[in-house]
Amino acid sequence: MVKRRIEVEEETVIYLLKKCFCMKDLKQIHARVIQLGFEQNVFVVGKVIVFCAVAEHGDVNYAVSVFQKVENPDAFIWNTMIRGFGKATDPRRAFDFYKRMQERGLVADNFTFSFLLKVCGQLGSVLLGRQMHCSALKHGLDSHVFVRNTLVHMYGVFKDIERSRQLFEEIPSPELVSWNIMIDCHVSCGKFKEALDMFSRMLKFGIDPDEVTFVVTLSACSSLGALDFGRWVHSCIGNTGYGSIIEVSNSLIDMYAKCGALEEAYETFNGMKNKTTVTWNTMILGLASHGCVNEALVLFCKMLEQKLWAPDGITFLVVLHACSHGGMVDEGRRFFDVMNKEYHIQPTIKHYGCMVDILGRAGFVEESYRLISSMPMQCNAIVWRTLLAACRLHGNVELGEQIRKQLLELEPDHSSDYVLLANAYASAGQWNEVMRVRNSMQKRGFRNLNLVIALWAGIPLLNFVGRMRASGGELLPYTNTMVFSLPPNV
């Protein structure tokens, strides 16, 4: 009877843990675990640690406190702790547990190496990754499907696509997960054509794609602008039924929009029964990126009117981007204000950067400067440079000089900042100031100064030379080499 009662209590605790959704509930269940004397029951405690270490709403530090009270944790618990720290803010601690696991005499298995190799990829540590690869070889686990897939992925993260490809080709009969990882590795390494070739090859081998395959492959189509291939992938999706999955439809919208097929993007968008905020963001961005600013803002307003989807920070970033390219200053101001006051979304540095660009393009450089001064975070060089470009465009040399001083503290060796300021002086006809900036550039070792400043100022080189000489400046020899290193967006 006692044995049966314990079994029932254990089953009850396990059932409650399966229904647990937050740490508050977990702690109550854990208290019951202690009360029942299950603290050393590795099966029950293992379930507690799984929630704390791995679940979205878990707490890895609480998992550590539970773990430390277990006298003889089994391999599952050790692996769970390693996995948990792989998902935490300090993934290096996973290796502390691996070391302790070895010291206790436990042998690492395929799960251990899969989790550790994933951490190596997260850390971007090539040396550590190779060391763990050697350890997996030593234990005879490098060919295990879990370990091999993680190795392929890890080397892809390291941008060593040749090594990833070699490891993949050594798999006797790769399954769908292996193909998906290999396609994704090509995409992450910028090998988009090879990713599409891999997708075609996978189909020839008779492997049926899933939603992950389609999302990754459509990403390659988007980056490559491969509209015809994307349409073919779309037809494949229609034959599988994965078109009802929101992530797949979002990827189709993104692909069509980036390939310039806005009608097909809109058709896919309108055909979706269920949408998410990401769906709306993707469609709005697609319209804005192709100059359809009014249509993008109309769609955004429609999203707000329906009140079924809450805009997020990305939504407002896309909308501000549209306002910037459409020269819609008042709308930009309004949306920037609404974002915080009505939707309680705190602007990030990117939102401020967009707003500075909107105001700067329209000539409100002083207002842009005040906005930067009011930012709750430190302004970065990108935003300062955006305002400096506006000063160049509108000839505000005084403010431009202040901004250059700010940039000098952040990135003292960025030549384009000097050129932007010299450009503003040249546009205002202040040639002595141009010469002063040019001399500062010369002291810092920048070359081809005459040609660069002339090109940025939009002045014929001979006219620039004449004006500089008239100002008493000495001209330096120049070549055409710097033309190609000029920032293209200024």
List the helices and strands and how they pair.
Elements: H1 2-18, H2 23-35, H3 42-54, H4 60-67, H5 75-87, H6 93-103, H7 110-123, H8 126-138, H9 145-157, H10 161-169, H11 176-188, H12 192-204, H13 211-224, H14 227-240, H15 246-258, H16 262-270, H17 277-289, H18 293-306, H19 313-326, H20 329-341, H21 349-361, H22 365-373, H23 381-394, H24 397-410, H25 415-427, H26 431-443, H27 449-457, H28 461-470
Number of helices: 28
The CATH topology of the domain at 173-274 is given as Serine Threonine Protein Phosphatase 5, Tetratricopeptide repeat
Number of strands: 0
Cα separation of the termini: 82 Å
Structural class: mainly alpha
What is the H level of CATH, i.e. the homologous superfamily of the domain at 173-274?
A: Tetratricopeptide repeat domain
Rounded mean pLDDT score: 85
Specify the CATH architecture of the domain at 173-274.
Alpha Horseshoe
The poorly predicted ranges are 448-490
Give me the strand/helix succession: HHHHHHHHHHHHHHHHHHHHHHHHHHHH
Radius of gyration: 29 Å
Q: Can you tell me the CATH class of the domain at 173-274?
A: Mainly Alpha
| Outline type | globular
- Report the helical percentage: over 70%
Strand composition percent: under 5%
How would you sum up the major sheet?
none
